[in-house]
Amino acid sequence: MNTGERNEVLLIAGRSGVGKSTVAWEVSAVLRAAGAAHCLV
Question: What is the pTM of this model?
Answer without folding.
Answer: 0.77
